[in-house]
Amino acid sequence: MQFIVNLIEYVFSSKKTSIYVTYSLKDYYNVNSLLKAANIDFRVATISDLSSPGSTYSDVRNEYKFYVREKDKGLALKALHRN
Q1: Which of 18, 61, 63, 71 is deepest in the core (most CB within 10 A)?
Q2: DSSP one-letter code for 49
Q3: Which keywords does UniProt give here (predicted)?
């Protein structure tokens, strides 16, 4: 079901250029705050894998994909690499 939602969002969204993928919630919040601080509009697609053994106790059960507009890609990457 989540795949369908992500697919529909991707098709109708102007933010289609992938700039960062992480499995870590800590990295998710870090990237999120860096892009917001740089005033860059972005979208995050989250894919959950709850079927993996031990996924309830693991930090890697979610995949977070950050997308921006093609014209914002350079600014977004610059914002991410400042740290």
Answers
A1: 61
A2: -
A3: Cell projection, Cilium, Flagellum
- Is pLDDT at 29 greater than 90 in this prediction? yes
Q: What is the pLDDT of residue 56?
A: 53
65 phi, psi to nearest 5 deg: -115, 120
Q: Are 48 and 6 in contact (CB under 8 A)?
A: no
What's the CA gap between 75 and 13, in Å, rounded? 19
Domain hosting residue 54, numbered range: 2-80
The number of folded domains in the chain is 1
CATH, residue 33: 3.30.70.1370
Question: CA separation (Å) from 73 to 12, 47, 67?
Answer: 19, 22, 9
List all residues 6 or more positions away from 8 whose beta carbon is below 8 Å from its beta carbon. none
